[in-house]
Amino acid sequence: GLGLAVFEKKPLLQYVVQTYKKIQKDSALLFSACSHLLHNEELMASLAEGSFDAVLTDPFLPCGPIVALRLALPVVFFSHKLPCGLDFQGTQCPSPPSYVPRPLSLNSDHMTFLQRVKNMLILASEGFLCNVVYSPY
To answer: Domain limits of the chain?
Structure first.
């Protein structure tokens, strides 16, 4: 998994390529599962007849909100962080990478210069990785 890769010592470019391939593979699997759910007419009809009040979902993948849209139900997110910095955009809350660590950086809020550079690189790559994950939807 991606978590174990933190402990492996590999050249940066190799690590980036492997991470990209893993994210792409995992995203395709999750997209396929979502697609199968949405195209299962019997299950979707059963959910529509369930008289639910809302859809509770994690915002990391858009399948939950898509199901909610199809069922005409409101969405309640149960995560403290929206992907791709959407929480900061939505709230207009500043998050300067010079002292606010990115979630994947494993940095604290007391960063050295090199940790701040790493934080900036992670921030810069998030848009690219988010495109990989969310473009199929």
So the answer is: 1-79, 82-136
CA distances (Å), origin 15, targets 9, 22, 39, 90, 104: 9, 10, 36, 31, 14
Is 84:123 a contact under the CB 8 Å cutoff?
A: no
Contact of 66 with 137, CB cutoff 8 Å: yes
pLDDT in tens, 68-93: 999 999 998 887 666 677 667 666 77
pTM: 0.60
DSSP, collapsed to helix, strand or coil, labels residue 77 as: strand
Going from the C-alpha of 113 to that of each of 33, 50, 102, 136, the distances in angstroms are 42, 54, 15, 37
> In the chain, how many H helices and how many E strands?
6, 2
Residues in the chain: 137
Query: pLDDT tens digit string along 22-56?
Result: 888 888 999 999 999 999 999 999 999 999 999 99
Q: Which amino acid is at 132?
A: V
